[in-house]
Each structure stands twice: as C-alpha cells, then as structure tokens.
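Note to self: keep these together.
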Amino acid sequence: MIRVLISDAYPLFRRGAGASIQEEDDMELVGETEDGQELLPLAIGLDPDVIVYGVSSLDARGPDVTRALHLQLPNTGVILMSDEDDEQMLFEAVKTGARAYLLKTTSAGEFVDTVRRVARGEHVIDETLLSRPTIASKVLNEFSSLNDDTPQEFRPLLAPLSPREIEILDQICKGGSNKQIARTLAISEQTVKNHITSILKKLAVNDRTEAVIYSLRRGWISVDSLGK
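Structure:
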C-alpha cells in the first residue's frame, strides 16, 4: 500500500484529494492536516510514502516546509499542489526537492497516477520543467554556481530522466552493450532499447556517447563509473 499524507488549508480540497486516494486499492490515507507548520512533525511520526502538500503563492512558509520535509524524510516523495500556475513556485519546488508540481485543477486520474509515480521514486517535476525552458534554464543557472563545499542535500534533483534511465546511463558508462545491460538489470533487451530511445529524445542528443557526456556534466551520473 502507498501511504499518503495530505496537507492543505482548505477542508474541501483535503476531502476531495483524500477521497481520490481512498478509492484506490493500492493506496491508504494515513493522515491529514490543515497547517503546514504541523506537517513536518506529523510526517515524521507517520513516515508516509507520499506527501500531498497544498501551497499558495501567498504562503511564504511553503518552500521552508518543503525543504525541511526533503531533508528529514528523504525517502518520502512530496507533491506540491497549487491554486495557480506560478512559475516562481515551480522554481522553488525544484530547489526544495519536491518530486511533483500539480495544479489543484488536475484530474483525479492524473493525481493518483502522479502519486503512484512519486511513490516509485520518479521525479515527475522534471517533465514539467521540460515544458518550461525558461524555468529549466533558471534552475540550471542558479545551481551551476554551487561548489564542491555545498552540502549534497541542497543540490537539485534536476534530471529529466527516470531512475531506470539513470541506471541504464550508468551501465553505458561502464561500457555495457544493450544485451549486457539487459542481463545486469534483469530486463529485456528491447526494454533497454526503448529506454535509450527515450533518453536520447529527452536530452535532445544524437547518440549514447553524447547522452553520457551531457549527464556527466550535470552530475546525474558519476564520473567514477567510467571504465568500471
């Protein structure tokens, strides 16, 4: 079961989001709160898989709460849900480690699908960034100034690739062929090919080598993997 905690100031939103969760056979609503300040201690006590956090551009505490959740509960995925399509809020969501950013007008189907993906460890927010080149550029520019002394937990989770695609890139770094990668990851060779096609498309590069170089430069995969 995917254990979900909901926080939002409006009872109607909590009731609607909670009902969507409870209708799913693989999800469980473990708690809810109306106050963002109460969210962190409640989340630490419940240790949910996913937190659905309703935020407003008028609430200056949102980024601090999200950052604290990410630092205290790194294995819990945070979905930020906003009343409005606010690019600054999206920027803050990326900076503070949220895994998804949705509008409250999102359909119930997309909402529960996002909960499942976040519970699997996916960073759905990256897909949002791909459609917002201005924000993606702003995030990259800001974090390009980070140095080696910056604590790892404050580095962005900015990679438009799924965890599986990162694994495949890491295997490519080690010189693995499609067949070897398939054997190592216990998936079919066709699945590997499909992932590589997706990687090249997402990164807008022409071949495996360019994809590896692109990802190494951005720190999505480690240079220590090369040749091993």
